Amino acid sequence: MRKELLTALMLGASVFAIPAMAADLRIGLQEDPDVLDPDQSRTFVGRIVYASLCDKLVDITPGLEIIPQLATGWNWSADGLTLTMDLREGASFHDGTPFDAEAVKANIDRSQNMPESRRKSEVKSIAGVTVTGPYQVQFTLKSPDATLLAQFADRAGMMLSPTATAAAGADFGNMPICSGPFKFVERIQQDRIVLEKFAGYWNADAIHFDKVTFLPIPDTTVRLANLRSGDIDMLERLAATDAGIVKGDGSLQYAEAVSLGYQGITVNIANSAMGDNPFGNDAKIRHAFSLSLDRDVINQVVFEGAFAAGNQPFPPTSPWYDKDHPIEARDVAKAKALLKEAGYDTLDVEVQVANNPVQTQMMQVVQAMAAEAGFNVKLKSMEFASLLADQSAGNYQGSQVGWSGRVDPDGNIHQFMTCGGGINDSKYCKPEVDALLDAARTSTDNAVRKAKYDAARDILSVDMPIIYLYHPTWIWALSGKLDGFDAYPDGMIRLENVKFN
To answer: Does 70 lie in the same domain as 117?
Structure first.
């Protein structure tokens, strides 16, 4: 009897000694991110990783209201030339470096002055940063900048450990150290990015996972199969054609939000010698290509009508859309005539495209439509990070790529269309456009800003450095075991208050 009691007690003790099962979240991404350095990176999926890794000065609500994150409050001077921010006390970076005003100053300096930085155009209005207290910082501007808070809600506002950036320089992305809810553990290219919960996070009570693993799975069918089998817990960018499958599966959840961004074809205008070709040199040819396409048919055939046809950086539902330049109806005869005026009956054009089924199918539809107008489109399928690298280097003629969109309209156009824009991979440059887009930044009157964007559109609709195609809807699919997920129009996955039920 005593032996049986002792055995029972030992078994009971062993049960209590077993640690609680770790809450590990696995998220399927459509692509593998590029470098994990907010000052250098440009991929949408990289921003999804940053949402867990790197806090920003401010964030947004699902309704696009700007709210505090590492900055707890702010105010503008009457002339719009000074922004004063109060900073969160008690926050720190993953390496133990304190987050304070000096850290903010160092981050802005890096964004503005590091040779490899892609954030320069986003913070170019800042003339100086003054530390006015341990947790207060003042930004002095060269001219009023209505976009600055929105820039701080994205990569320009992501705070990196000054200790780590000083030590690593341009190699920071190999071991990124930020101040978000999760810290970096490892990355295996094309396989996984692993983060673990940061115990010192200022809002740790809202974080319910011990580890988050991001898994690049370009094939949408495979990504969904992984979710249905339980190998991942969530995926971003569910194919619109699979929406019915998810909605009909009682073990899964479906979520969507209308995007702020666009998809299109970026044309190499003057980015290295490869821009010296008819497609890059002659706007008339680009107009012909655009006229060969039926954007509504693309939406119906590829996306089952779930997205919106587009021809501008802003969707037709946006208050910033220029109604004086509506989407042109497909006109093959006119497209052929324009191509003929440019001196060609037929023309070869190479367009690179990400190697996922959805983008490939979409470009195959474009390829077939353009062929009817005389364009022989060769598709070059590439892994997405490699595609972006070639695009930046000018090693392309056309590149099918998109932009996830920003809260402020400036974020969808300025850095792509100005001569020194940080993501102007066309190397399109027209001083009149620069003047209009720069002026749109300086006014807080939306009517004035709208007039500037419309005037720029008058020029850009002719020059077409980007041939816009459509505006996506972000669609997520996730396990029914998850609670608390909110869909945001910026497409990010925010894990505060998300947990397994």
So the answer is: yes
Domain-located, residue 46: no
CATH number of the domain where residue 216 is located: 3.40.190.10
Radius of gyration of the chain (CA): 24
Same domain, 266 and 248: no
Q: Judge whether residue 445 has pLDDT over 70.
A: yes
Q: With bands split at pLDDT 50, 70 and 90, how would you rate the model's confidence at 11?
A: very low
pLDDT at 21 over 70: no
Please indicate, yes or no, whether residues 209 and 330 belong to a single structural domain of this protein.
no
Q: What is the CATH number of the domain that holds 376?
A: 3.10.105.10
Beta strand ranges found along 355-465 (DSSP E): 375-382, 398-403
Whether 346 is in a domain gets the answer yes
Report CA torsion sign: 140, 141, 146, 149.
Answer: negative
Q: What is the distance, to the nearest Å, from the Cα of residue 231 to the centroid of all Cα atoms in its chain?
A: 25
pLDDT, tens digit, for every residue of 158-216?
Answer: 999 999 999 999 999 999 999 999 999 999 999 999 999 999 999 999 999 999 999 99
Take residue 127 and report the two structure tokens written for it: 């003339």
Q: How far apart are CA 236 and CA 471, in angstroms?
A: 16
Number of independent structural domains in the chain: 3
Cβ-contact 268, 398 below 8 angstroms: yes
pLDDT at 317: 84
279 & 425 share domain: yes
pTM metric for this prediction? 0.83
Kindly report which listed range (19-23, 267-271, 335-339, 480-484) carries the lowest average pLDDT score. Answer: 19-23
The number of helices, as runs of H, and strands, as runs of E, in the chain is: 16, 21
Q: Domain residues for 460?
A: 262-471
Same-domain pairing of 364 and 220: no
Q: Are 430 and 459 in contact (CB under 8 A)?
A: yes
Q: Are residues 289 and 427 in the same domain?
A: yes
Name 85's Cβ contacts closer than 8 Å, sequence gap at least 6: 57, 71, 73, 74, 104, 136, 137, 138, 139
Q: Are 180 and 124 in contact (CB under 8 A)?
A: no
User: HSE-up of 230 (CA within 13 Å, CB side)?
Assistant: 2
192-197 vs 211-216, strand pairing mode: antiparallel
Say yes or no: 302 and 444 in one domain: yes
